[in-house]
Design a protein that fits this description.
By secondary structure, the chain is mainly α. Among the domains are: 17-50 and 123-308, no CATH class; 425-449 and 460-563; 569-676 and 709-774, Orthogonal Bundle (Tetracycline Repressor, domain 2), CATH 1.10.357; 812-962, no CATH class. 63% of the residues lie in helices and 0% in strands. The chain contains 42 helices and no strands. Helix 13 (268-278) crosses helix 16 (311-328) and helix 27 (608-625) packs parallel to helix 31. The longest helix is centred in the middle third of the chain and has 40 residues, at 413-452. Residues 525-668 form the MHD1 domain. Residues 799-909 form the MHD2 domain. Residues 70-84 have a biased composition (Low complexity). Pfam families: TPR_PATROL1. Residues 1-20, 54-123 are annotated as: Disordered.
Length: 985
């Protein structure tokens, strides 16, 4: 973006946005005309007071007669001709102000006899001031007449020892005015001036205990409504006089001062004084000062004693007038801004010693207005300055820095440098950021127009175009703006390019994140090349700009976070990885929701959802290694870590809801003696068992198993876990081969690659174990509960043996053989065998009072258990014999207890209990807790064998030792029949 050649004026805010800092704080509706009339009265009175000769009053007719004009210099010597005044120092030269050419042109026309009908040029400085201030000759005549009356009454009284509005009120009557209305308006102006100077803005703060302010306020309020009689004999006038003088003649030490303070309070005095300074500008040529500006200022300075103006306030007020004149006239006369800057330099010097709170307040408000207006241009100086007005920019910056310094209070040398640099740094960063935003908007418009153009083929990416525009902005900054700003900021160009670098870097990040780049497309490559070129240009500018700096520009360079193509490419690849992983997660969720784990759905007998997930993982890896880059090995861990998490998510979800072995183990019944006695008829017993099988729910630790899938579906889940585990090994080998093909020097990285999938591998191992156990315990304790827990050895042992359980268990094993994968078959059947052995022991030792065994039943129990073992051996075609023997160790150790005589069993229980708890022979036997591990040396195991021993000795021992009750399970035959009949409906 180059500098515009447009010759329009600086696009700055209008002057309406620039309120007068003096009038804004006045707090009283005084118009400019009222202030000018008041100022002119003070000026005439001050000149009269300081003149060598007494003031002579001339009537309007006399002043207008030709003879009067010819004798003007004689009758009014104190109103010296313009040509007679020789200034000691030229204000226009010192401030660089341009004088008006209109006066000379008028003078030339008058001498040549042209334009005779136009008004003549004022002959004296006072007349010039009057004309400039817009005071009519009639008003001037009245003022001088009033001052003569005052002078007659108070000969030799100095202007600073009187309250001029009060004096004029006393010496004027309505007959001095053309009409009553004008008189009343004049009187109200005098009263408002008194209110402003004595009540609203007094030089000395008002005393809260003094009643004079309230009296004056009341008198003024009444006089504004009803005009007062101003003669010396008027009671209201006497009261007004007394009250006004008591307030005006106050001093800091409490004594009565000779000097009257009625117009020297800030900001009233500045509002009045501003009228004089405005008169320095030519009425016809508003950007130029009058030829006699030095004489005018010399005349105006005579009012300082009345208005309490000092050099600092003069400089401040004049600075504001010059600045406001520059703004209000269209910002075309740079000399005005330069002059304001020169005066503020003097204000800065005087501000160090100033302790006046009121002056400090008005100084602050004025400078803030100037600074605020100037900064609106500097904060976007790329839009403000161009080739035709670039010379103005140094004045703008100087004025902004100078006002900021004064406002900082501490204006020591070190602080000045910091203030200047901080301010300029802010302007640079703000404007450069704005220039970048405009360049981006321009590119967006180009993009939109290209979208609408059907003939446009393969347009350049937006960021590629933007990079070119930013290079142009940076070069313009270096060549045009930075040389100016370097006066206040030694690293101006470096600061600018740092902002451009950061802004483009943010766009580059947004391009990578939001634009949806899945692969390194040709457009992405173009953007990377453009970004790399831009970065080289920006860094070069920063380096050249910092050659003379103390740290060699390290600070500026460090601020520019690199975005070289390799880093951006890494970011693109990581975004690509994130997108692919998100898709994989969505696939995992969707497939698991739709998966029914049907063993018939897929010939390999594992879940199709797992195949889809693994296939997508392989495709993702294939696409990753096809990306046009060289850093595959560095970025591969990010991809593999994400794949590992997705696969782990699938595994965790696939095994969730299947429960665990603890979900299916029945609740351990309380210890009780078995119920001996009459047995139920065999036929009715079978009906009872049938009823229990159909109507009784198994006793489960939780209800999770009731909602779990069937055995075929469980086998598919197990197969799926095994398939994932195998495929992971294959996937690792493929990754290693792909990495080696990308590298000229292959390395042994197999261990590192395998570690990347360690979470998934661990989840598979854990999932296989959990699913095999859960499936086995579900089959035994849930699916076969009706023939194991509800049927085996209930009632008569010989009539409720293990054959029904074996028959149904064999059917379930056939389903497992037909569904489970060969690699997990042995493991799953082994878990079923372990669950069956545990279920068998559970019936013997925790089957409740419905199961009672005699010593003679031990052969039956051992025979049934052998049948159970043979089912898994299956004539040598089943599980290995050593595996069966190892799993049956616990049962084989407990079964002999059932053939031990009761007396010996009791003695053995006593001895082991004494040994276990360290009891003496006479100590009472404690009730051993259930350990959960059956063992012939475990007291609880021996106690449970005794609880199920069907003889009186065992029952008496349990009754005497532990007061165990007999189990009440015997149901009368009619009740069973009724229940059975109702079940049949």
């Amino acid at each position: 973006m180059g500098i515009s050649n447009d010759k329009t004026t600086i696009p700055v805010p209008p002057s309406d946005d620039l309120p007068n800092p003096f009038a804004a704080q006045l707090g009283l509706p005084l118009s400019d005309m009222e202030l000018r009339e008041t100022a002119y009265e003070v000026l005439v009175a001050s000149c009269r007071s300081t003149g060598a000769n007494p003031l002579t009053y001339m009537s309007q007719s006399q002043r207008l007669s030709p003879s009067t004009e010819r004798s003007l210099s004689i009758s009014s010597p104190r109103r010296s001709p313009l040509k007679s005044v020789t200034p000691k120092k030229s204000c226009s030269n010192a401030l660089g102000l341009r004088k008006s050419a209109a006066a000379a042109m008028k003078k030339g026309r008058d001498s040549s006899g042209q334009d005779a009908g136009k008004a003549k040029r004022p002959a004296t400085v006072p007349d010039l001031v009057r004309v400039q201030m817009g005071i009519s000759e009639h008003a001037d005549s009245r003022i001088r007449r009033g001052l003569l009356r005052i002078a007659v009454a108070q000969v030799g009284k100095r202007i600073e020892t009187m309250v001029l509005p009060l004096e004029l009120l006393q010496h004027f009557k309505h007959t001095d005015f053309p009409n009553q209305l004008e008189y009343e308006s004049w009187q109200k102006r005098k009263l408002k001036i008194l209110e402003a100077g004595l009540l609203l803005h007094p030089r000395l703060p008002l005393d809260k205990n003094d009643t004079a302010p309230q009296r004056l306020k009341k008198l003024i309020s009444g006089a504004l409504e009803t005009p007062i009689k101003t003669g010396k004999q008027s009671e209201k006038m006497k009261g007004l006089w007394t009250t006004v003088m008591s307030l005006a003649c106050r001093s800091f030490d409490g004594s009565v001062s000779e000097t009257c303070h009625w117009a020297d309070g800030v900001p009233l005095n500045l509002c009045v004084y501003q009228m004089f300074l405005e008169a320095c500008f030519d009425a016809d040529e508003k950007t130029a000062i009058v030829e006699e500006v030095d004489e005018v200022l010399d005349l105006v300075k005579k009012t300082w004693v009345v208005l309490g103006i000092n050099q600092m306030l003069h400089n401040l007020c004049f600075s504001w007038v010059l600045f406001h004149r520059y703004v209000s006239t269209g910002q075309v006369e740079t000399d005005l801004l330069f002059a304001a800057n020169c005066l503020l330099v003097e204000v800065e010097k005087d501000a160090k010693a100033s302790t006046d709170a009121a002056c400090s307040s008005i100084l602050s408000s004025t400078l803030n207005l100037i600074l605020g207006w100037i900064e609106k241009s500097l904060l976007s100086y790329h839009d403000t300055f161009y080739s035709d007005n670039i010379d103005v920019m140094p004045i703008f910056v100087s004025l902004a820095v100078l006002t900021a310094k004064i406002l900082e209070k501490d204006i020591s040398l070190g602080k000045e440098v910091d203030v200047a640099r901080d301010r300029v740094d802010m302007y640079i960063r703000s404007s450069v950021h704005s220039a970048f935003s405009q360049a981006r908007q321009k590119v967006e418009m180009i993009k939109s127009s290209k979208k609408s153009s059907k003939n446009q083929r393969n347009p350049l990416p937006v960021l590629s175009i933007l990079a070119q525009d930013i290079i142009e902005v940076a070069l313009n900054e270096k060549e045009i703006f930075s040389p100016i700003l370097k006066r206040w900021h030694p690293l101006a160009a470096g600061a600018a390019v740092a902002v451009l670098h950061a802004c483009y870097g943010n766009e580059l990040k947004r391009f990578v994140k939001i634009a949806g780049i899945g692969e390194l497309s040709p457009n992405a490559v173009l953007v990377l090349h453009a970004a790399d070129k831009l970065e080289r240009v920006l860094v070069q500018i920063a380096v050249e700009d910092s050659v003379e700096s103390e740290d060699g520009g390290k600070t500026g360079i460090q601020e520019m976070t690199p975005f070289e193509s390799e880093g951006v490419m890494d970011s693109l690849v990581k975004t690509w990885i994130g997108t692919r992983l998100d898709r994989l997660r969505e696939l995992v969720d969707r497939n698991l929701q739709e998966e029914d784990w049907d063993p018939e759905a897929y010939k390999e007998r594992y879940a199709p959802s797992a195949g889809d997930v693994l296939r997508m993982m392989d495709e993702t890896l294939e696409a990753f290694f096809s990306l046009p880059m060289t850093r595959h090995r560095a970025l591969l861990p990010d991809l593999m870590g994400g794949l590992d998490q997705c696969l782990q998510q699938y595994i965790m979800e696939a095994k969730s809801g299947c429960g665990s072995r603890n979900n299916f183990i029945p609740v351990m019944p309380a210890l009780t003696r078995c119920k001996t006695g009459s047995k139920l008829p065999v036929a009715l017993k079978r009906k009872e068992n049938s009823y229990a099988a159909q109507g009784r729910k198994p006793q489960l630790g939780t209800t999770a198993g009731e909602n779990s899938l069937g055995l075929p579906q469980q086998c598919v889940r197990i197969n799926t876990m095994q398939h994932i585990r195998v495929e992971l090994e294959v996937l690792v080998k493929r990754i290693i081969n792909r990495l080696n093909s990308k590298s000229s020097s292959p390395e042994d990285i197999s261990q590192g690659i395998r570690k990347k999938f360690e979470l998934s591998i661990a989840a598979c191992v854990e999932g296989l174990q959990q699913l095999c156990e859960a499936t086995a315990y579900k089959v035994v304790f849930h699916d076969l509960s009706h023939v194991l827990w509800d049927g085996l050895y209930v009632g008569e042992v010989s009539l409720s043996r293990i054959e029904p359980f074996l028959e149904e268990l064999e059917q379930h094993l056939e389903i497992i053989l037909a569904t489970a994968h060969d690699r997990v078959l042995t493991r799953l059947i082994t878990e079923v065998m372990k669950a069956s052995f545990e279920g068998f022991l559970f019936v013997l030792l925790a089957g409740g009072p419905s199961r009672a065994f005699t010593k003679q039943d031990s052969d039956t129990l051992e025979e049934d258990f052998k049948f159970l073992m043979d089912l898994f051996w299956f004539n040598g075609d089943g599980l290995p014999s050593e595996l069966i023997i190892k799993a049956s160790t616990t049962v084989q150790g407990v079964l002999p207890l059932f053939r031990i005589p009761t007396e010996s069993l009791i003695e053995q229980f006593r001895r082991i209990t004494h040994d276990t708890y360290g009891l003496s022979a006479k100590s009472k036997l404690p009730l051993p807790p259930t350990s959960g591990k059956w063992d012939p040396t475990d007291p609880n195991t021996l106690l449970r064998v005794l609880c199920h021993r069907n003889d009186d000795m065992a029952s008496n021992f349990l009754k005497k030792t532990y007061n165990l009750p007999k189990g009440v399970i015997q149901v009368q035959v009619p009740e069973i029949r009724l229940a059975y009949d109702s079940m049949l409906g």
